[in-house]
Amino acid sequence: MKRLITRRRFAKDSAALSLASVVPAGLFGQSDGARQIEVRADDKIGEVRPALHGQFAEHLGSCVYGGLWVGKSSPIPNVNGYRKAAVDYLKELGVPVLRWPGGCFADDYHWREGIGAPEKRPKRVNIHWGGYVEDNSFGTHEFIGLCRLIGAEPYLAGNVGSGSPREMRDWVEYCNQPSGSTLAEERAANGSPEPFQVRLWGVGNESWGCGGQMTPDEYAAYFRRFSVFLREFGGTHLFLIASGPNNNNVAWTRGLMDGLVRHRPADGVSMHYYSWARQEPTKFDVDHMNEQLSSFAKIEQAVIQQRALLDGYDRGKNVGLIVDEWGVWDRGIPDEEKNYGRLWQQSTMRSAVAAGLGLNLFNRQADKLYMCNIAQMVNVLQSMLLTDGPAGRNCIRTTSYYAFLLFKPHRGKMAVPVEAADNGPLGLSASATLGEGELNLSLVNPRHDQDMDVVCSVRGGKPSSATAQILHDADWNACNTFDQPDRVKPGSHPVAVDNGKVRIGLPPLSLLTAIIKLG
Ligand code: AHR
Q1: What is the pTM of this model?
Q2: Atom of ligand 1 at shortest distance to CA of 56?
Q3: What spacing in Å lies between the alpha carbon of 103 and ligand 1's midpoint?
Q4: Minimal-distance CA residue to ligand 1 atom 7
Q5: Integer CA distances (angstroms), 475 to 257, 348, 353, 487, 511, in order
Q6: FRET partner for 208 with CA separation of 20 to 30 A, picked from 104, 232, 481, 512?
Q7: Nearest atom in ligand 1 to 274's CA
Q8: How far are the Cα atoms of 229, 382, 476 from residue 288, in angstroms, in the given order?
Q9: C-beta pairs of 178-184 under 8 Å, 24+ apart in sequence
Q10: What 3-state class would DSSP assign to 153?
Q11: Which residues contact 449 (CB under 8 A, 6 or more apart)?
Q12: Pocket of ligand 1 (CB under 6 A)
């Protein structure tokens, strides 16, 4: 009861937040309504693979054409056809992995149409995303070129739905055979004597839906057949990713894994889990926001359950669980989609909080995950960057970009457990990783109506100093626009360290990463 009263008093007193940020030493350790968390630096979860911060670029709306790719003769500043501002921003963020060309698009993509002299490439109708015509000027070489520019590992999604094992097998050889074969020579003649060494291959996409409306049995048969022909060339060992469940569909995963027993298993199984909402991005009300943010607790449960399911088939835990598409999917605005492309979506403070909840859960479940790819990179759904239409010169960083930037220190570090009492879907969200002599602590306050005053102790280490960066706006609909590109961006935030404890005040709707030096 005492705790409840003091919390309520604390929440009412907005001045308490600034006090918490520069709290006097004497207040540490007192039960004054602060949320106590403990980082267990002497324990381990698993490495936060950089690929948990992967991205996805589909031929959809203005993600590729007019977004990433403007063409070499465009008046928009470009590097060999790639939009320069996008390349610069993505390099700054760092993109560990990039998945392409879809999505649904992948199962209607024929890779040979995207190689050779651009003017000779066929024009095709994008049947999944609006029926517009694409000229195939962005193909395999352009994709690999982009990956090299931004330092991303390429991940190709092969066509199972309308393709053939031969078509996909040839794509692998075209990319990976160093020399000597006709396909390797064709690649060299097209400007790339060096093999692309593509390791990550998706075998179809959403085969339960846009990838062919298959049953798990049917898909497992396709996977078995395709995978026989997908081989190592030139020493590049393939990591084959099977089309996994929609959300936490255990029946799909079971059917798939049953169908692969006594066969070469998939190296990875991809789950798609979107956080849907029926409201327009900048017009959310509290209920819809809370409902959408609550979905991340379900995603965490799905990761735990799907992992357990896979482990039941694969005692060696060799099958990687991949969250291949995730992010907020809000209600589209027809006028914006008309001007800027299909699924063009603004990112708001709410979206950034959602990204923080996702990235926190990936840290917490780091031992269970192989890769996670946000949908998508530019202009589409929860994108990192926005441009004002295919012909637009503007390119801005979204709130989601900044959420990913805040979590960058975790990449490649060892995740360690964080004990926190408040574990509800809209409670304080926390995760931590251990670096050389320092701890990276990320906190997310998903509440619009509560400050959170957090006192953190560290088991197995003694904090000596700390700095923090925060992303925050009290308005959940706040966003970066072409007129106000810097409305929501990270800034430094005070952190107090006293006698081995760290105290941080989190305003409503905020996400923060603190770098804590261990003495
Ligand atoms: O990311 C948009 C679409 O969502 C993808 O094409 C598909 O895989 C999923 O349904």
Answers
A1: 0.93
A2: 1
A3: 5
A4: 103
A5: 45, 9, 12, 11, 14
A6: 232
A7: 4
A8: 47, 17, 11
A9: 178/233, 178/234
A10: strand
A11: 11, 508
A12: 58, 102-104, 205-206, 272, 325, 375-376, 381
Report the separation in Å between the CA atom of 62 and the middle of ligand 1, taken as the mean of its atom positions.
14
Distance 328 CA to ligand 1 centre (A): 12
Q: Which atom of ligand 1 is nearest to the CA of 205?
A: 8
DSSP-derived letter for residue 84 is H
Q: Which of 325, 377, 379, 382 to mutate to test the pocket of ligand 1 (most atoms within 8 A of CB)?
A: 325
Distance in Å, CA 322 to ligand 1 centroid:
15
Q: Which residues does the annotation mark as catalytic?
A: 206, 325
Query: Per residue of the chain (519 residues), what is the pLDDT tens digit?
Result: 222 222 333 233 333 333 333 333 333 444 568 999 999 999 999 999 999 999 999 999 999 999 999 999 999 999 999 999 999 999 999 999 999 999 999 999 999 999 999 999 999 999 999 999 999 999 999 999 999 999 999 999 999 999 999 999 999 999 999 999 999 999 999 999 999 999 999 999 999 999 999 999 999 999 999 999 999 999 999 999 999 999 999 999 999 999 998 887 899 999 999 999 999 999 999 999 999 999 999 999 999 999 999 999 987 889 999 999 999 999 999 999 999 999 999 999 999 999 999 999 999 999 999 999 999 999 999 999 999 977 888 999 999 999 999 999 999 999 999 998 777 999 999 999 999 999 999 999 999 999 999 999 999 999 999 999 999 999 999 999 999 999 999 999 999 999 999 999 999 999 999 999 998
**Three-state SS at 378:** strand
Query: Residues 6 or more apart from 351 whose CB is under 8 A from it?
Result: 281, 328, 382, 398, 399, 400, 403
Ligand 1 atom at shortest distance from the alpha carbon of 206: 8
Ligand 1, from 55, 56, 58: best to mutate by most atoms within 8 Å of Cβ?
58
